[in-house]
Amino acid sequence: MRRAWLAGVEIDSTLAGALAEYLRLLFRWNRRMNLTGLGPDDRGLDRLVVEPLVAVQQWPLGVRSFVDIGSGGGSPAVPLKLARPRLTLRMVESGTRKAGFLREVVRQLGLKDVIVDGCRYEELLTRQELLGTADVVTVRAVKIDGRALNGLQTLLKVGGELFLFRRVREDEAGNDVRRPLRMRGKYQLVESLKSQLVVLEKT
From CA 131, how far away is CA 125, in angstroms rounded? Predict the structure, then answer.
């Protein structure tokens, strides 16, 4: 894919085919329901696919599982899973119709080790069996403040990381970092979108 290549990301034909199938499903369903406000143009493709492919380069070593909060139309979760198919993924989406779409993506793409939870992420924080189990938690398009950070970090193992997909001007994610989280770094995703990845580590 040309857009990935322009961002310095190389993908093989298998991944390119799977991403194309995901996008076909997304835009077909998007005509019936509001999954994403992004069209199939360069900016939309950068946001939906290229940002996750750039972010996966910051994946910590030894990752086995990740949780995506507010999965919506499936990005960044689905491209991340396609790029790292051996990982276990839990997608969390409170919208019933959007959760239905995510389950259809899992079925159509034949994704293994994927769970779609049709609930608000706060519900996960009450499930003792999930606390302290995730290697990575990814978040996009969800308001993040100190209270949210404190809740989300309980899903992480010690040494696990929060991946926050933000715009450069959205600096609230870096203002409320408190123990046991620490800032690991901020990394540019797509320059034209002024997007960045904020990575917080649980110590």
Answer: 7
Q: What pLDDT score was predicted for residue 137?
A: 98
Q: Where are the domains of the chain?
A: 2-202
Say how far apart CA 195 and CA 181 lie, in whole Å. Answer: 22
Residue 67 neighbours by CB under 8 Å, 6+ apart: 89, 90, 91, 92, 124, 134, 136, 137, 138, 155
What does the block give as tokens for 10? 């190389």
Classify residue 13 as exposed, middle or buried by CB count within 10 Å of its CB (0-12, 13-18, 19+).
Answer: exposed
Name the residue among 156, 166, 13 with its Cα closest to residue 82: 13
The answer for residues whose C-beta is within 8 angstroms of residue 176's C-beta and 6 or more apart is 145, 146, 149
Token pair 């119709």 is at which residue? Answer: 97
CATH topology of domain 2-202: Rossmann fold (3.40.50)
Kindly give the parts of the chain with pLDDT less than 50: none
As a whole number of angstroms, the distance between CA 1 and CA 72 comes to 23
- At 172 the pLDDT is 57
pLDDT for residue 1: 60
- Residue 173 confidence (pLDDT): 55
DSSP 104-129: HHHHHHT-SSEEEE-S-HHHHTT-GG
